[in-house]
Each structure stands twice: as structure tokens, then as C-alpha cells.
Amino acid sequence: MTRTTQALQSAPTGHYRFKHVARSEALKVLTLRSSAITLAVTVAAALLVTGLVANSNLHHGAGYYFGFDPTQISLIGLIPAALTGGVFGALLITGEYASGTIRTTLGASPRRPMLLLTKIAVTATAMTVFCELLAFAAFFLGQAILSGGGAPSAGLGSPGALRAVLMTGLFIALLSLMSFGFGLVFRSTAGAIACFVGIVFVLPLVMHAISEPDLRYVPTQILTNSVMSTVRQGPGGIVHPLSPTVGLLLMVLYAAVSLVVGATLFVKRDA
User: Fold this and answer.
1) What pLDDT does 270 receive?
2) Could you tell me if 241 and 261 are in contact, meaning their C-beta atoms sit under 8 angstroms apart?
3) What is the pLDDT of residues 95-153, one digit of tens each?
4) Please, are residues 168 and 72 in contact by the beta-carbon 8 Å criterion?
5) CA–CA separation, 71 vs 64, rounded Å?
6) Rounded to whole angstroms, what are the CA distances from 24 to 1, 31, 100, 107, 173?
7) Nearest-5° angle of CA 125, CA 122, CA 249?
8) Predicted structure pTM score
9) Tag placement on the chain: N or C end, fewer CB within 10 Å?
10) Who's near 204: CB < 8 A, 6+ residues apart?
11) Distance (Å, rounded) from C-alpha 71 to C-alpha 160?
């Protein structure tokens, strides 16, 4: 008997409530081996990239640091987390379809809207906490390297720094939720990840060739040029970044559309 089953058995049959389903879903997230591996890779990749990028910005002349954004430099390591976070978001739902345990889950909690709402809530909470902690860890690591090497650095009290760190963590969590929605749509890990990578990493290349000014609406451009940025570079390019708030709201829309489509299919389709 699994701990997930035990969690659901704490309520009378047919009377499972949100808290019972939430407990079982939280146990799934915490006990899946794939979850631990993916999150460990995410932490290692994010901190490694942050360290390398920060170190590459040391020991330059004064002119190099004109318009330098130490906050953005520290958070750039979260770009790999965008990819692994998307993989994690997809795995949380497609893993159940691949193993067939989705039938067991639906049998134990047949109220699909409540089940899905709980899955989304647990995923959103877990990923937001994890991504925020990772964003702060990357920020402090990057600033320690920059200040130790004599480069310009920032603190959480610097203009825009705290906002950038908090929004970056939230943005990565929203990317994971968007991928979760793709998992509901495709019910296949390969299909969900392919769609996620296509939108997040391939679409910018296509948009660059078709309409470069519209790159500012693409998730990766919003993340790097709007959410992470605290220093405005001024005019000169044809891509004018969105404001951080507008960029984050657009990412909320991306995630919402994915989840609404996935939820509609989840409720209507057979397991």
C-alpha cells in the first residue's frame, strides 16, 4: 500500500475533500524519484551557470561596466531552470499517464474538477517555493562573486533588485505550470516537453526572423529583458522590453491558456 493511498484512506469513501487530495498529491511530488533528480539538476545547473557568468564579468576595465546590471547577471543562471522546471511540470502529470496510475487516482478521487484544481494548487505552491529559494540563492551567489572580484554588485536593497528576484522565481514557476498544462493536453512527456521547448526556446529564433520587435512578447525575452533586468539600457535597439509587471502578467496569461485547455480536455476525456 502506497503512502498516497494511505493519505486518501484517512477520509470516508466517497467523501474525499480538498485537504485529503492535496495531501496525497503532495506525497506524490515529494516521493517521486524523478522529482528529486529533476530538482537536483535544476539547482546544480542554475548555480553553476550563475557562477560561471558572474566570474566571466570580473577583472574588466571601467568602460566595460557602463550600463552593467549585477542583478541580471546573478539571475541569468535561472535560464537553465526554465528548461528543467518545464520538464518537472510536465512530468508531474504525464508520469501518471505513462505508468497508468492516473486510473487509480481517478478511482480514488473521481471528482475531476476538484482533483485537477488540487493538482494545480500543489504544483503551483511547490514550484513557487522552490523557484523563489533558488532565485535568492543564485542572487546571493552571483553578488558574492562579483563583489569579491571587484566588479559592481547589488544588494536586495538596490533599486529593483528585490523585485527582480521575486518576479524571476515566480516567472519560472509559471513556466512550470504552463508545461503542466501541456502535459494535460498531450498526456505524453515527449509531447509536452516538445511543445514547451518549442514555445520557450525555438519560438524566439522564429520570431527573430519574422518580426524582431515582437520578440518582447516571447517568454524567454520577457524573463531576461523585463523581469530580470533592473538597469534600462536606453534606446538604440528595435526590441523595446515590456515593463516587469506587464511581462509577468503576460506569462500568467500563457500559463492560464495552457491550463484552461488542458483542464477542459482532462474533464472531458477518458483516462
Assistant:
1) 77
2) no
3) 888 888 888 888 877 788 888 999 999 999 999 999 999 999 999 999 999 999 989 99
4) no
5) 16
6) 13, 11, 17, 13, 21
7) 50
8) 0.88
9) N
10) 215, 218, 220, 221
11) 9
Contact, 48 vs 77, CB < 8 A?
A: yes
* Amino acid, res. 214: D
Rounded to whole angstroms, the Cα distance separating 134 from 177 reads: 17
The one-letter amino acid at 152? P
CA–CA separation, 131 and 39 (whole Å) = 10
**With 0-12 CB in 10 A as exposed, 13-18 as middle and 19+ as buried, what is 228?**
buried
Q: CA torsion, points 28, 34, 35, 36, in degrees to nearest 10?
A: 120
DSSP class per residue in the chain: --HHHHHHTTS-TT---HHHHHHHHHHHHHH-HHHHHHHHHHHHHHHHHHHHHHHHTSS--GGGGTT--HHHHHHTTHHHHHHHHHHHHHHHHHHHHHHTHHHHHHHH---HHHHHHHHHHHHHHHHHHHHHHHHHHHHHHHHHHHHHTT-----TTSTTHHHHHHHHHHHHHHHHHHHHHHHHHH-SHHHHHHHHHIIIIIHHHHHHHH-GGGGGGSHHHIIIIIIS--S---S-SS--PPPHHHHHHHHHHHHHHHHHHHHHHHHHS--
